[in-house]
Amino acid sequence: MQMIDRITELAGVQKGDLSVCLGCKICASVCTVNDLGCGVSPQELLVRVFMGHEIGRGDDLLRYCTGCCRCTEACPWNIRVPEVVRALREALGVASPFEKAFKASIERWGRVYEPYVFLRSLPFLIREGYIKHMARWTGYMSIHLPHKVKRR
Questions:
Q1: Where are the domains of the chain?
Q2: Which of 66-70, 125-129, 143-147 has the lowest mean pLDDT?
Q3: Is residue 148's pLDDT more than 60?
Q4: Cα distance between residue 62 and residue 45, in whole Å
Q5: How far is Cα 141 from Cα 133, in angstroms, rounded to an integer?
């Protein structure tokens, strides 16, 4: 099975869903990974997947994508890049620190609890030197304490 077939199957998209990309790179202009100074382009990743080019496990978009869907919302064709990234991670056996923290939050709290995700990712962020961007990230986070819903 070719990589494109595996990725489209895992992502739940058709090849045609990826081939409509116009190359406008609006997705890159809104990508939160670029707030880290990585200079990634979701459009270039889609082209590499579609053309069958090799994608390395260390690709910055694979490593740091948080699945915020800003790229999908900005895309004129609503291409679901985060699903493609998740499918690539699964196919390559790669999980980002954010994805691990996200899954742990759901297991522990039953939902995504942003401070927990942040704290679980903190050692990675410090080690990689990305903590300097914390002021910018606080605009994306909402801080609240977890609580149980009382039923009447």
A1: 3-92, 97-137
A2: 143-147
A3: no
A4: 9
A5: 13
pLDDT for position 152:
62
Which strand (E) or helix (H) includes residue 26? helix 26-30
Residue 47 CB-half CA count within 13 A: 10
| 48: its two tokens | 């590499």
pTM: 0.66
The dihedral over CA atoms of 116, 118, 121, 123, expressed in degrees to the nearest 10, equals -100
Please name which of 30, 12, 128, 16 lies closest in space to residue 70, comparing C-alpha atoms.
30
Q: At what angle do helices 3-11 and 42-51 cross, to 10 degrees?
A: 130
CA angle in degrees (0–180, nearest 5) for 102-27-123? 30
Other CB atoms within a 10 A radius of the CB of residue 81 amount to 25
Dig out the tokens for 86 from the structure. Answer: 């998740």
For the stretch 93-129, pLDDT in tens is: 887 777 788 888 989 988 888 888 888 988 888 888 8
Separation of alpha carbons 17 and 23, rounded Å: 14
Give the residue carrying structure tokens 């690539």. Answer: 88
